[in-house]
Amino acid sequence: MDLILTSISNITKEEMGYSEWIDLFGIIITALLSWWIVNTIQKRIDNQRTLKDHLISEILSIRTDYRLMLINIKIGESHPKYLKIKLKDLNIKTTDIMKIVSNKYRIDNKYLNHYQHDLNWLITDNKEYINSFKTDSKIILSQESMIHFLIFEANNDHLFNDLIVRINDSN
Amino acid sequence: MTTINIAKDYSLFTGLRHCNISEKSGEDFYHTKLNTAFKEAFEKEDKLTIILDGVDGFAPSFLDEAFGNLVYDFGLTNVKAYLEVASLLEPQWIDMITQQTYPQWEKRREKNIFPKKTITHKPWFRIVDSKIECKKWI
Question: How far apart are CA A128 and CA A88, in angstroms?
Fold first, then answer.
């Protein structure tokens, strides 16, 4: 802006014709317009980035909760009734965040449904889970169950990273 | 329209599939609440709505057993016509019930593969040759 004002001051010291005034007017309008566009668009880009960062951090937090839940099951530190409540809590959080992700970035809001569905069945239909349910005692997985849990994690862990990449790449 | 809110009308805490492995199981919910409520809705040609939200969470086997038995006793066409399952918080259960439980139990009904009963229940309703009958079927 200083450069423009200095130029105007220099120009007006000399005699200016009609066309020069039009040119000058054009330069000022263009400069103002550029300033407005840069500010507005930059603000919009910043807002979009902030929202993306927020949603990504929420998804990371959900992934961490799932991971911690699975670790606790594997080390025998989980009780069946608490797990049922925790699964519900994560179902709700995931549904909620996926609604926003779907609205903003046109990503299928059921993207994590299979993960949730399969994990809910894996945990609550597990033999050791069922045996511990009545007394709400700690679940101690058998070797066979442990393998099922490890396979589930190996097959599905990429889903959250894929989702984050898709959000990041979305316009 | 009749509504059953599981949390208010049945229990805040739901169990697993069968009565012999947990209290407030899907089998128990079906025999103490859902079977009779659906029979009444069917007779009145009224819609029965089951509200899932509000309980401490569901084991999917609870829902599968409860709504699967309904399909087994009344047929998929009638269940689709007179039953609505509602959940704002966990809509994935509705998908599971309609896309997985319904067709699997309808096949079971067609093949006469009886549902497992783990305790003795009072007589319950079933449609046989388009008529409602009430007895101990198993």
Answer: 20
